[in-house]
Design brief:
This protein is mainly α. Helix content is about 85%, strand content about 0%. InterPro entries: DUF3618 (IPR022062).
Length: about 80
Amino acid sequence: MSKDQTSSLESEIEEIRERLAGTIDELIYRGSPKTIVQRQVAALKAVYVDPVSGEPKMGNIAKTVGGVVGTVVLMATLRKITKVN
């Protein structure tokens, strides 16, 4: 193998190492619990707040409140029914 080929291979190996190091750093960042929590909070906020205007999305808020109220009413009704018998 000539000196030029060896030099070329060494530089190619170094480039690959740098890319792998960057990829590993990115994976560590994406997989950190803090980053995951930040992504999930942002996703949840996007459901209830318009990211462009900052206004609340009343339709989604109303659906969530309706679901919570419905669940509470259902649980109260079931408790009442089971206590009577």
